[in-house]
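pls design
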């Protein structure tokens, strides 16, 4: 199957750990996305329940007969006590540990990386199971952490190397995703498109 994963449009909060925190899109946030992603036909549009993702998805399908499927497992990592804070407001050592060893460092009262990984992987498997084979891509509008995790799991790339991948607001990552004979997902990165 072909899967388009897109980060929501801009909230103007670069550098903040917005997981549960759900700021609105800024005025004009969709302009660049319309120009960059116009004319793509998606067989399905699925979105995180966070307002910033949902508003992005609704804007992308406005004027069409498509509807947006909302699924909570596509939400960003829950950063617990760090949620809504800027990087500069966090203890530098803990934040560095989170990025270097995400499986070992859990934000206080937050979601562990294995929990996050399990819910995103379950949804990736579900999409492969539900693929109708028509060749049209499925769009999932979500968050930067989700995009990095999905690329890591599908393409077999070390998560630590993906922190360097620039995933700005409105970035679209196109993956080919398949399931091997062993039941594991595998695939390749086909395109990384910045608005």
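designed seq:
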């Amino acid at each position: 199957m072909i899967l388009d994963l897109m980060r929501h449009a801009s909230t103007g909060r670069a550098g903040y750990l917005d997981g549960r925190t759900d700021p609105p899109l800024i005025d004009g946030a969709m302009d660049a996305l319309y120009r960059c992603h116009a004319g793509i036909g998606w067989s399905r549009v699925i979105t995180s329940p966070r307002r910033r993702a949902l508003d992005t998805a609704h804007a992308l399908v406005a004027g069409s007969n498509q509807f947006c499927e909302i699924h909570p497992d596509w939400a960003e990592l829950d950063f617990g006590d760090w949620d809504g804070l800027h990087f500069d407001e966090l203890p530098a050592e803990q934040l560095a540990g989170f990025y270097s060893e995400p499986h070992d460092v859990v934000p206080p009262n937050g979601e562990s990386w294995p929990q996050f990984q399990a819910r995103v992987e379950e949804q990736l498997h579900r999409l492969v199971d539900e693929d109708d084979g028509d060749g049209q891509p499925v769009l999932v509008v979500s968050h930067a952490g989700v995009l990095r995790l999905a690329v890591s799991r599908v393409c077999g790339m070390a998560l630590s190397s993906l922190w360097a991948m620039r995933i700005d607001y409105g970035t679209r990552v196109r993956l080919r995703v398949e399931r091997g004979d062993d039941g594991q997902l595998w695939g390749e990165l086909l395109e990384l498109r910045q608005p």
